[in-house]
Design goal:
This protein has 281 residues and is an all-alpha fold. It contains eleven helices and no strands.
Length: 281
């Protein structure tokens, strides 16, 4: 049934006197329409047909609100409730799928509720996933200002170009991993796109196997390939032994120029060559 037809049908119901059975506090969604027709028309929540989800499914019993003539404080307003209480109402339905780990998640612990990011009354579905802002990344940037700055750097994830979104790597509704990652580790997250770096390799580079974040900033960097520092300085964080790895060099030196260490150690993510023990082949 279309929205206009829905309003017309329930407008007819309003003509009949409202009745309440003994002990009941529900007024029915038809009682909400005279004052909240615009909000009802903007209800694009999945399953929002009143046969499945009435106004009182979220806002609670409304008879007292109707009797008082719409007095504030006589019905639940999710926007005015503490985040955890509002989330508990949403969790009455949303308990499976990617929301299964909500309890105890980073967002839940920091009092970020469902209504912090989502708006059930979303006119004409103008925002995807009932978001309060125009896109996933804009919604996330509301709190994560540093990540917005990093995404504006010269070397960055293609989020600005629309090829990725924050939820490709993170699950904002909770995860069993640190950083709300979709996969079980940083590396597994990266391998979904960078499968060629997964290996296994005959000669591994330990920092690579430990975490991609040892060398890369996943949100953006001023260095090529989103490196946290420019070679050879990046490599010298670990390689501080004698001779060429840590000796100071001029800007034109082959140990510094252009890609620095990887001019020779080109297989920095690991090598399968029989002579690749130093990641040179």
């Amino acid at each position: 049934m279309c929205r206009a037809a829905w309003i017309a049908v329930h407008a007819l119901v309003l003509a009949a006197p409202l009745a309440r059975a003994a002990g009941e506090e529900l007024a029915g969604s038809a009682a909400c329409l005279p004052c909240h027709a615009e909000a009802a028309a903007a209800l694009v929540h999945r399953g929002a047909d009143l046969a499945d989800a009435e106004c009182e499914s979220c806002h609670g019993p409304g008879w007292a609100h109707v009797e008082s003539g719409g007095e504030a404080g006589t019905i639940r307003s999710l926007a005015k409730m503490p985040a955890r209480e509002a989330a508990a109402i949403c969790r009455e339905c949303h308990t499976a799928g990617n929301t299964v780990h909500w309890e105890g998640s980073t967002h839940e612990q920091h009092d970020i509720g469902c209504t912090s990011c989502h708006s059930v009354h979303n006119p004409a579905g103008r925002h995807p996933a009932l978001l309060t802002k125009s896109s996933i990344q804009e919604t996330c940037y509301g709190c994560h200002a540093m990540q917005r700055v990093q995404m504006m750097r010269s070397s960055h994830m293609p989020v600005r170009e629309g090829k990725l979104t924050c939820t490709d790597c993170h699950n904002p509704h909770g995860s069993v991993t640190e950083g709300l990652l979709v996969d079980r580790s940083v590396n597994d997250n990266c391998y979904r796109c960078h499968a060629d770096k997964r290996g296994p390799t005959l000669f591994e580079h330990p920092p690579v196997r430990e975490s991609c974040l040892n060398c890369h900033n996943p949100h953006g960097s001023i260095h090529e390939s989103m490196l946290v520092a420019r070679p050879p300085r990046l490599c010298q964080n670990c390689h501080i032994n004698s001779r060429h790895p840590s000796e100071p060099r001029t800007a034109a030196s082959r140990f510094v120029f252009n890609k620095g260490c990887v001019n020779c150690h080109s297989q920095i993510h690991g090598s399968n060559h029989p002579s690749g023990i130093r990641a040179m082949r």
